[in-house]
Each structure stands twice: as C-alpha cells, then as structure tokens.
C-alpha cells in the first residue's frame, strides 16, 4: 500500500450543512485555512493555503457542531472530489479542537 496520510492544522473558515449519504451516513464538507512559515531549500517561506475537506460518520457530526474561526488539527487522506473531478479533498479521519 502506498502512503497517503496528511496532518493539517488551521482555522475552520467554511462549513456546509450536515447531510446524509444514500447509505444514511452523515457527511459534511468544509474548508480549512492554514498559515505558517516552512523551511524549503534552507530558506523560510510563508505558506497560506485553503484546503477543501470532508468528514463522514461521527466526525461529520462533531464537525457540524463547531463554530467558524475555530482552530483545528485534523488527519486523514487525500482523494479526488469525485471520479469526474481532479480537485483534491482531504478526507478527515480524526479531528481535534486546538
């Protein structure tokens, strides 16, 4: 199996309404804003990125109760938004308020 694990922290800037899949699982989509300074080629670099994310199951319910502007730490994996889309989405597998 190839590695596909992401740890990401940032501010919750957008959260859609909780909805349910055809199988009855809760699902929610959101956007997380990350800003930091990273070292690249021995040089400091300012990083700012908005990452689309989604959560399914109990994590979706937990995410639906959070207020916007809360700082989060999440982990999960990257996947295409759909089979027909090349947009990348972080699938959240764990979530912690910071």
UniProtKB/TrEMBL annotation:
<dbReference type="Pfam" id="PF22657">
    <property type="entry name" value="SSB_1"/>
</dbReference>
<protein>
    <recommendedName>
        <fullName>Replication restart protein PriB</fullName>
    </recommendedName>
</protein>
<dbReference type="GO" id="GO:0006269">
    <property type="term" value="P:DNA replication, synthesis of primer"/>
</dbReference>
<comment type="subunit">
    <text>Homodimer. Interacts with PriA and DnaT. Component of the replication restart primosome. Primosome assembly occurs via a 'hand-off' mechanism. PriA binds to replication forks, subsequently PriB then DnaT bind; DnaT then displaces ssDNA to generate the helicase loading substrate.</text>
</comment>
<comment type="function">
    <text>Involved in the restart of stalled replication forks, which reloads the replicative helicase on sites other than the origin of replication; the PriA-PriB pathway is the major replication restart pathway. During primosome assembly it facilitates complex formation between PriA and DnaT on DNA; stabilizes PriA on DNA. Stimulates the DNA unwinding activity of PriA helicase.</text>
</comment>
<keyword id="KW-0235">DNA replication</keyword>
<dbReference type="InterPro" id="IPR012340">
    <property type="entry name" value="NA-bd_OB-fold"/>
</dbReference>
<keyword id="KW-0238">DNA-binding</keyword>
<dbReference type="GO" id="GO:0003697">
    <property type="term" value="F:single-stranded DNA binding"/>
</dbReference>
<comment type="similarity">
    <text>Belongs to the PriB family.</text>
</comment>
<keyword id="KW-0639">Primosome</keyword>
<dbReference type="InterPro" id="IPR023646">
    <property type="entry name" value="Prisomal_replication_PriB"/>
</dbReference>
<dbReference type="GO" id="GO:1990077">
    <property type="term" value="C:primosome complex"/>
</dbReference>
């Amino acid at each position: 199996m190839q590695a596909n694990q992401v740890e990401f922290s940032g501010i919750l800037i957008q959260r859609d309404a909780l909805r349910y899949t055809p199988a009855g699982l809760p699902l929610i989509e959101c956007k997380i804003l990350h800003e930091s300074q990273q070292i690249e080629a021995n040089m400091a670099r300012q990083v700012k990125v908005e990452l689309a994310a989604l959560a399914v199951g109990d994590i979706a319910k937990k995410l639906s109760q959070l207020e916007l502007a809360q700082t989060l730490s999440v982990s999960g994996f990257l996947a295409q938004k759909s089979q027909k889309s090349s947009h990348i989405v972080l699938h959240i597998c764990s979530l912690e308020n910071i």
